[in-house]
Amino acid sequence: MNKPQIIENTISFVKETLKDAEGGHDWFHIERVYKNALLISKDENVDEFIVSLGALLHDIADAKFYDGDETVGPRIARKFLENQQVEASVIIHIENIIKYISFKSSLSLGDKFSSPELDVIQDADRLDAIGAIGIARCFNYGGFKNRTLYNPEIAPNVNMTKEEYKKSDAPTINHFYEKLLLLKDKMNTSTAKKIAEERHLFMETFLQQFYAEWNGEK
Ligand code: NI
């Protein structure tokens, strides 16, 4: 099978698999990450086939929705790619990308894997967690978990362990300080750094307005 055909098949597979996914991790999230990853790739020396497959499959089974089991995603991806007769070395690379992409894995820096393709997809995924879309996804997920919007008495905890992060039921606004506002300094590529600066400013403006309205000042 040729590469464009495999990518087409992957798009169909991901759309079908994620048809009931939560709004922040649905097909449209994947599509945005895929497009951002291709945009970032233009300035990087990467294999676009691997970037495409990795971006399309990176949330095929989000561990948050499988009781924290982080092995499900790589397993589903492997099975699918084997059916597409993708070569073994590419499959291993994609499995590693899925394993290492999440914020949670990078909190527990146990094992080491890196590649330029992972850097690009991680940046694209992180870009989708900030800015206007990031704000929308953050509150959508908070609602899904029945979290409060904000509680001035519960301070953000920026030094969470991997376990604490998974179990956290803190207000959604805290997530800005625990994750979203930290992302701009974690971008790997210069293209993503530039985009992240603008999205970061937008979130800061949003927070100022949020507190002003909360406090009855506007
Ligand atoms: Ni994602």
Structure description:
This protein is mainly alpha-helical. It has one domain: Hypothetical protein af1432 (Orthogonal Bundle), CATH 1.10.3210.50. The chain has helices at residues 3-17, 27-41, 48-57, 72-83, 88-100, 103-107, 116-127, 131-144, 162-167, 172-178, 190-214. The termini are far apart. The chain binds nickel (II) ion (NI). Nickel (II) ion (NI) is lined by residues 29, 33, 58-59, 125. Residues 29, 33, 58-59, 125 line the site of nickel (II) ion.
**CATH topology description:** Hypothetical protein af1432
Count up the helices.
11
Number of strands: 0
Helix content: 55-70%
**CATH C-level:** Mainly Alpha
Number of domains: 1
What's this entry about, in short?
With 218 residues, this protein is an all-alpha fold. The protein contains 11 helices and no strands. The radius of gyration is 18 Å and the shape is globular.
Secondary structure elements and pairings:
Elements: H1 3-17, H2 27-41, H3 48-57, H4 72-83, H5 88-100, H6 103-107, H7 116-127, H8 131-144, H9 162-167, H10 172-178, H11 190-214
How would you describe this structure in keywords?
Hypothetical protein af1432, 218 residues, 61% helix, binds nickel (II) ion, mainly alpha
